[in-house]
Every structure is written in C-alpha cells, then in structure tokens.
UniProtKB/TrEMBL annotation:
Catalytic activity of the protein: adenosine + ATP = AMP + ADP + H(+)
Family: Belongs to the carbohydrate kinase PfkB family.
Cellular component, GO annotation: cytosol; nucleus
Cofactor: how and how many bound: Binds 3 Mg(2+) ions per subunit.
InterPro entries reported for this sequence: Adenokinase (IPR001805), Ribokinase-like (IPR029056)
UniProt entry tagged with the keyword Disulfide bond: no
Name of the protein described by the UniProt record: Adenosine kinase
EC number: 2.7.1.20
Length: 97
C-alpha cells in the first residue's frame, strides 16, 4: 500500500522556453541556424535575434529539468498534489499548478 504523498519539492535553475512559428527561412538563413538543432550564440547575436522576432507571435513556457520533472510527475499522478519549485537565484518558492 502506498502512503499518501504530501509534498514534492524540486530545486533547480529557472528557464523560460520561447517558441514561435516562422513562415519562411529568413531567420534560419540570417543567423545560420538549422531546423531541430542547437547553437551557442553570443550576447550580441541573441540581442539581434530578439529584435528580429519582436513582431512574431510567441509562446512561452516554464522549462528546466527540475520543473519539467515535476510536471511529468503530476501528469503521472493524475490527481492534484502539492509540487513546489525552488528557484535559488530569485529566492522564491513557486507552486507548480
């Protein structure tokens, strides 16, 4: 028999994933990017990309290994549970709904 889980706490660094739908290869070509790839870029390149995507519709979602693990756990439980994510940089406690 499983005991009732009261609280799960995860410690990790906060990340914010931003996705956008592009209708052509303009950004990929301009910044020498490939589909489904990763690339380390400079701070200047990041600023330029951010300026170029201002007019694009964006979706943002919380990310990071610890936070994503809590989301999967909650999906697996298929019921409400108290899951907390502790952000060391901001010193905040954020409930994951």
């Amino acid at each position: 028999m499983l005991k009732k889980m009261k609280t799960v706490v995860a410690f990790g660094n906060p990340l914010l994933d931003t996705t956008l739908l592009v209708k052509d290869d303009f950004l990929l070509n301009k910044y020498n990017l490939k589909e489904d790839d990763q690339k380390e870029i400079t701070k200047n390149e990041m600023q330029n990309i951010c300026n170029d995507i201002i007019s694009y519709e964006k979706n943002q979602s919380a990310g990071g290994c610890a936070q994503n693990s809590l989301r999967v756990l909650q999906w697996l439980l298929k019921k409400s549970a108290t899951l907390l994510f502790l952000d060391r940089q901001e010193k905040t406690v954020m409930p994951l709904l």
